[in-house]
Amino acid sequence: MKKIVFLKLLIFKIIFLFILIFYIMRKMEKLIVFIKKQDPAINSTAECFLYQGLWARFFHYPAHFLYKKNLFFLARVISQASRFLTGIEIHPGAVLSETVFIDHGSGVVFGETSVIGENVIVYQGVTLGGTGKDTGKRHPTVGNNVMIGAGSMILGPINIKDNAKIGALSVVLEDVEEGSTVVGIKGRLENLLRYGKL
Q1: Where does residue 105 fall: left (phi above 0), alpha (psi -120 to 50 degrees), or beta otherwise?
Q2: DSSP letters spanning the chain
Q3: In 163-182, which positions are buried (b, 16+ CB within 10 angstroms) versus exposed (e)?
Q4: Given this model, what pLDDT does residue 189 score?
Q5: pLDDT, tens digit (0-9, with 9 covering 90-100), for 73-132
Q6: I want to staple 66 with a disulfide (CB 3.0 to 4.6 A). Which of 33, 53, 75, 78 is the partner?
Q7: Is the pLDDT of residue 151 over 90?
């Protein structure tokens, strides 16, 4: 009797797992088409599955689902396993559209309240983070058709509007208007000037 119950449970789990994988893969179809269109190095659909950005997105679907159901610990377990496997940290609370392409991927971080629109390309080392001063909505909102260059940091509850481009290694602390291009670092030597050391 116990063997039959165990076998039924095992069959149910396997069927559930296949349904879950099928559901996620159906949701990722648009992303695979977008990756093939954006990356000239791709020669086949099969190569898309070698991209760590694709796998980070694969793990984000169940993590985000659990997060929305208030199963925060399980959601974090999945997101941390994904970070360990891919080098990309997407908080389970982050909201990503179906066509967010994380190219190269290593070191990418999306904070909890980040929202990212359609047809967005994110390169390695990008951070969508908080400043530590805000509560509630603490992370950026990125519009549609945005490109974020390698090593960029977009910090705080700001808006990157549609069709914007963020250059590599840029630090963005203010809203970016539609169709704009942002480059450079917004740092200042304020403390050294204040204390007369410069």
Answers
A1: left
A2: -HHHHHHHHHHHHHHHHHHHHHHHHHHTHHHHHHHHHH-TT--SHHHHTT-HHHHHHHHHHHHHHHHHTT-HHHHHHHHHHHHHHHS-EE-TT-EE-TTEEE-S-TT-EE-TT-EE-SSEEE-TT-EEE--SS--SS-S-EE-SS-EE-TT-EEESS-EE-TT-EE-TT-EE-S-B-TT-EE-S-----HHHHHTT--
A3: bbbbbeebbbeeebeeeeeb
A4: 45
A5: 999 999 999 999 999 999 999 999 999 999 988 999 999 999 999 999 999 999 999 998
A6: 75
A7: yes
More confident of the two residues 21 and 152: 152
Q: Is 196 helix (H, G, I), strand (E, B) or coil?
A: coil
Bridge partners of 142, per DSSP, are 116, 160
- pLDDT, residue 170, reads 94
Tokens describing residue 84: 């360990």
The two structure tokens encoding residue 121 = 């390309």
Cα gap 176→166, rounded to integer Å: 9
pLDDT at 128: 98
pTM of the model: 0.85
